[in-house]
Amino acid sequence: MSSLILRTATRYIQPILVLFSVFLLLAGHNEPGGGFAGGLVAAAAYTLYAIAYGVEEARRLLYVSPQGLAGAGLLAAAGSGIPSLLYGKPFMTGLWHEGDVPGFGEIAVGTPLLFDVGVYLAVIGVTLSIVLNLAEEE
Amino acid sequence: MLIAVLSGFALALIAPSLHRLTHKRTGFLVGLLPLGLCVYFVRLASGLDADVAPVRETLAWVPSLGLSLSFTADGLSLLFAALISGIGFLVAIYSGGYLDNHPQLGRWYAYLLMFMASMLGVVLSSNLLAIFVFWELTSISSYLLIGFFHEEEDSRKAALQALLVTGLGGVAMLAGFVLLGRVGGSFEVHELAAGAGLIRGDPLYLPMLLLILAGAFTKSAQFPFHVWLPSAMAAPTPASAYLHSSTMVKAGIFLLARLFPVLGGTPAWTAVVMPVGAITMVFGAYVAMRQNILKKLLAYSTVSALGAMTMLLGMGTDGAVKAAVAFLFAHALYKAALFLAAGIIDHETGERDVRRLGGLARALPITAAGAAAAGLSMAGIPLLFGFVAKEIFYEAALHGPDGWAAALTTAAVVSSMFFVAAAACVAYRPFFGAATETPKRPHEAPASMWLGPALLGAGSLAFGVFPGWIGEGLLNHSASAALGKSVDLHLRLWHGFTPVLGLSAVTLLGGVAAYAVRPRFTAALATVHRGCDAIGPQRWYDGALNGMLVVAKLQTKVLQNGYLRHYLAVILITLVGLSGSVLLTHVKEIRKHVIDSLVIAWETVEFYELGLAVILIIAIAAAVHSRTRLAAIAALGVVGYGVALVFVLFGAPDLAMTQIVIETLTVILFVLVFYHLPPFAIYANRISRARDLLLATSVGVVMGVLTLVATATQAYPTISSYYGEMSYDLAHGRNVVNVILVDFRALDTMGEITVLTVAGVGAFALLKLRLGARSRGDEEGSS
After folding, report:
1. What domain count does chain A have?
2. Of B84, B363, B418, B614, whose CB count within 10 A is highest?
3. ipTM score of complex
């Protein structure tokens, strides 16, 4: 599809969507959102790009293979359970660190965030590996 | 100890990258870890004291399931751990030479280390569930190692066979463990041992015993489950030496010894374990003796040795358990050495058949010396540790359970005779006598390869001359741990002129005679052997596998015929049938309740909610009646967004957001898929439409009623208030939905994204497969 309007719009919308997906991912712990919704939004962003500019371009923009993303996601999610073992707590116990970051206020970072990042990556990877391959066949 | 176990897994992860950096030196580098571990375990072992409780470390893993990583450093686990890491060190170095130029050597090291770490996990764990986890990991790494030459069909088949046989046993074992944990009230072995009396008296004792034994017997290749072990010789020789002779196959023996204080020594135990072991021992030794391929011969003699250990543990007397431990140590030393030597012969000459080998001692002096020591140990010749072990083996057999002593002693002597003949085949025949023509001109293997046989052979000799070194120490503690009480093990080279010494002399003479008549004997009985093979356990396995495939094909044809509408119909009919029938049994209460809630709903409904419902219904009708695909997709899209609006109206923003994105992606996917479909056509006739309408309506009604009923009945106190209260305090999150997903029930989510990824890989493979088929078709068409 080579619509100038779509291409131009995509150029602005796609980054905003990706940014929004990261926002959803990070905000998810306290506000609506989370890794699953965020991952879907990011996947939609790349799908949009693939529709506007073609699958090849979308793959180039993604930089890594969707399967790799899915694998990395699983690894991150599973890996998030390990740190608690080192503190002598059961596997997958959530560990949190709270601290003041100048300019942001109080921020809590914990292993569940890593887990959510894993979900996010896995969802992007799986969705895109299906969508891009389907689109490629044409 | 946790670090000792996990370090192997960690190194396995980076081994392939390491290999890319260091090439030829990887073997030595990787070997440093097992070497260090071996020193660590030996030091722990030297600190063992009969009066002090063994060191324990516990780390909760999934406490709600009773699963914890708890490690015990008693004699039994340290004996195994030292063997695993020590032989692991030699094998790591050896494989550097053996698989010299193999392009996937890095991967090999990864598998090998993963195996070592899992095996250490099995022997050090004192939690049954953790033992099971590591046990299965050894099965998987064994599968990868056997199938390492994955281009060859034989390797793949053998790997699968090993995995299926040991995996099936593993599942049975897990069931046994669960029973044992239920009855004993714990999964910790030492706690179970404290309540052994109750467990043995429980009516579930026999089932749990049989299930656990199934696991041990399959792993330790007891008759008739032994079939996978000779097939596993398709593995590269270092793996055979490591897994399939000295370590992994002994996991079953280890389990018998570990659980002996809990389950052992009862009449049922003896009645099952002892005969199975004895049959395996005699059968294995006999078959070993008539093999001509070096590795097959060693494999069957391993089966036989495992049988001997099983038999000893089955007898369950103090003497027998001591003998089992000594025999195990002797066997690990000599069998690993012989396997490694067999690998060198194969590597240097390209020949595996003993009948075509001879006179290699001149070309391979160091290997020959190592193999000779190991072979003499296997034959049970004085001054080697195998002799010491065989003496106490005979001693135990002579003092076997009442009425069985004579039979057991005969079995032991006969199989030892075959052992002498087999040892001569491996360690004498290829190295001495007239030299033969071989595919390659032999010369001594590199130091990395002869180091193993040389050190292990020297070990057999050193411990043979001074058996007290290890007998008073580690083996003694090991036997004590297996028996659950302190015992004294005295190993001596010279016992004086006893009946046992006489038996040894008879064995030696018989063995030499058996070696002499072996060629003529096997030739004469060739047809009988072929007949036995034709009805043997390998056929059972083949039959079972084929049967399973037939059943799988049949059920695929019936249930998974590739028609999506049939899948949906099956799922929905099941749902309606099961839930509907339950609802029908309570039809009176439900009718009143449903009518009441509908009336209330009608009174409180807002006009926009009603409007939304009308839109949804119109959209569905449009989807059903549309004459083009695009219209149908659009109509379905309206339904999807409408449902998202419902979520918004009723306070589930997370769901609404996800639903909208999913809906968008689904429409895109539909469009992409439709590109490949044939032109739209309507196949449905009046009957099928009526049927579908009926099904759809009944699903709707059942789900609707179910929802109304479910929201009204409260069988248990709801958990949502707990999540609501605890969400911020425990998990630092105010979005309860997300906190549940990533924290409270993270394991479920983990499972879901795993399934998602697997499904994604499946879809990817299907798409790629079609592409591949099409491009191949193009090539054929064009050529």
Report:
1. 1
2. B84
3. 0.85
